Amino acid sequence: MRISLLALAGLTALVGCRNDYQLSTAERDEAVLSLEVLSPTYGEFMGAEQIVVTGTVSPSYAILEIEGEPVEINKDGSFSIEMPVDGPYRIVDVHAHLDKQELAERIPVFSGLDPLLTWPGGMTGRLLPAGMTKLGEVIGAMVDDLGWADTINGALPSYSSSVVSLTSLGVSHSPTIVALTPALDGMNAVFTLRDVTINYQVDVPIVGLTETLSIGYGSIGVGGKLIPNLDADGLITLSLADAVVDLEDPIFEFGILQGWVFDLVVGAINDWIIEPLAETLVDTALAALGSFDLGGPFAFDFDLMGTPLSIRLSDLFADLGGLGLELGVGLGEPASLDPLGIPVPDETNAGAAGAHMALALHEGLFQILMGDALLPLLSQGLDLSGTYGELIGTGIRALPGGDQAPAGDGWCLALDPGTAYAARLQESTAPLAVIYIPDFIVDIGIKQGATCETWLKASLAMEIGMGIDGTKLDLGLGVAEGAILEYGAEDVDEDEVVAALGSYIAGTLGLLAGSLLDIDLADMLGDLGGGTFGELAPEVVGSSQILSPEHPDMEGLYAISLMLWAE
Questions:
Q1: Do 305 and 386 reside in the same domain of the chain?
Q2: Counting runs of H as helices and runs of E as strands, what totals does the chain give?
Q3: Domain-ending residue, one of 263, 289, 315
Q4: Residue 168 within a domain
Q5: Are residue 70 and residue 142 in the same domain, yes or no?
Q6: Are residues 76 and 41 in the same domain?
């Protein structure tokens, strides 16, 4: 048989190709899959940048998928793609496959900046015009409690002659009204002492007459500027400057006095009572209202599940926006009393119309609380048997595939929130803030003697909403997504398992966290003010982000609007 050179060359090429194929297949069977993700890093804050996912896969002919989409691998095994963070966080799922080998990385990242990097160390607040109206009511009661009427009564002149005597019986009045309005470096204040009535007993022995005389003033007005002052010891005083007194003409009630007796009494009143009385009223009013203490020091110390929380009033000022203040906040350390330079919200912030106060809160405070208080609470390792084990087991067996769980000596439950989390304030009040924990590990095992064998392990994207129910802190837990890392059950739908497991864990943790985080704003503010400002009933009514060109480095600052007193 004759074989042409062309056919021989073709046969040689075919054999050569087959040998190459057999060699690559052998190499493929012996290859060990490896995956290394270089960026992003676990729990990274991306700012406003896109995610650049880079890394290497070996061998380079493995299959690579990122969030379920195929990704090209370069000849040297490297890969790189970009994707946005289209929400508060994104979980980058990287999967590499080679025959029966599989490797995976689950990397959560966050949009925006790390709240701890922009945390200013405190908060600011402003008592708004509506709040100043309410504060005026409180100060009015304080003025009456100072006992100015008793002071006037003690200073009232008396008169006595052989014909007639005038003796003071006391002073009565209606509640004092105080009107406060914003002003530069203080508060414009008008004190109205209402229905001031001075009673005298009139005795005319020669006619055997004893009668009651009333001298009434419909109102005594004292106007001026109240200037706040915070001293080195944290005590607050209000001083009245540029005071002006408006004293109405008195109204007399003489009873049945007539004729020469009437003229006698009126003459004595004008000469010995009315003229010195006016001066007495003015001097007493100015002395009573000239300066009074609001108390202090305005400090608050609270144990938040073992973490000391310290709040100190570090600055107090007044301007056309209202009465402003700055509070240093320390967690696990003393609160700062140094100037913090935090913007002070005013009535222009969304949601503040009609509110009593606006607070500038930074989400870094919630980030710290999360790391110091809530994460340790959520981290649990439970070895359960007996009745408690059965309770846990009932919930686990109710999951899709849970009926496939083998019998054992009890259950093991390990919860690990990890180190990737972010606290974000919201432009709403329900919730006011959300804590994102995108890689919350739940490991459920079955006890076999002294050991515990994992039955179900999952990574859940936990979201914890922090709101205010009335005046109490309210927590709402939910799971947005997740992934099954290990499961002993077969033929189950992963999405159904994640949804059911998420509801089960969220409900269990919600009861635990709610019982331990029993925080009441009314108690906190009552302690902070020492009861000086009357009965407080705080209610959060609005939240809006503060975008200040003068403070671009304070991302995460929000104006929280509150009602402080019940309407």
A1: no
A2: 11, 28
A3: 289
A4: yes
A5: no
A6: yes
Decide: 160 and 123 in contact? Cβ < 8 Å: no
Q: Give yes or no: residues 334 and 391 share one domain.
A: no
**Residue 153 belongs to a domain:** yes
> Looking at the structure, do residues 86 and 203 belong to the same domain, yes or no?
no
- Provide the residue type at 41 as one letter: T
Final residue in a domain of this structure, among 243, 266, 289: 289
The CATH number covering residue 162 comes to 3.15.10.10
Q: Are residues 70 and 197 located together in one domain of the fold?
A: no
Task: Give dist(CA 436, CA 440) in Å, integer.
Answer: 10
Amino acid making up residue 340: L
Q: Which residues pair with 357 in a beta bridge?
A: 127, 562
Please state the three-class secondary structure of 69-128 as a single string. Answer: EECCCCCCCEEEEEECCCCCEEEEEEEEEECCEEEEEEEEEECECCHHHHCCCEEEEEEC
CA-nearest of 187, 135, 138, 155 to 287 is 155
255 and 205 together in one domain: yes
Sheet holding 78-83, edge to edge: 34-39, 51-58, 78-83
Torsion of CA 348, 354, 355, 361, to 10 degrees: -20
Domain range holding 181?
129-289
User: Is 241 within a domain?
Assistant: yes
Beta bridge partners, 53, equal: 81
What is the distance between the alpha carbons of residues 223 and 212, in angstroms, rounded to a whole number?
A: 32
Q: Tell me how many degrees the CA angle 236-240-246 measures, rounded to the nearest 5.
A: 150
Please indicate, yes or no, if residue 438 is contained in any of the structural domains.
yes
Shared domain check, 21 and 41: no
Distance CA 42, CA 109 (A): 7
Distances (CA, A) of 145 to 38, 75, 246, 451: 69, 86, 22, 70
Task: Decide if 294 contacts 141 (C-beta within 8 A).
Answer: no
* Residue 510 tokens, joined: 């919600």
The C-alpha atoms of residue 109 and residue 107 are separated, in whole angstroms, by: 7
User: Structural domain tally of the chain?
Assistant: 5
H/E stretch holding 9 reads: helix 5-30
Q: What is the CATH number of the domain that holds 93?
A: 2.60.40.10
pLDDT in tens, the chain (567 residues): 343 433 333 333 333 433 343 435 555 567 899 999 999 999 999 998 999 999 999 999 999 999 999 999 999 999 999 999 999 999 999 999 999 999 999 999 999 999 999 899 999 999 999 999 998 888 888 888 878 888 888 888 888 888 888 888 889 999 999 999 999 999 999 999 899 998 888 888 888 888 888 888 899 888 899 899 888 777 888 898 888 888 888 887 776 655 556 666 777 777 777 777 777 777 777 777 778 777 777 777 877 667 788 888 889 999 999 999 999 998 878 888 888 889 999 888 867 788 999 999 999 988 988 887 778 878 888 777 766 677 778 888 999 999 999 988 888 889 999 999 999 999 988 898 999 999 999 999 998 888 889 999 999 999 998 887 766 777 788 999 999 999 999 999 999 999 999 999 888 777 666 555 556 666 655 554 445 677 778 888 889 998 877 776 778 999 999 998 887
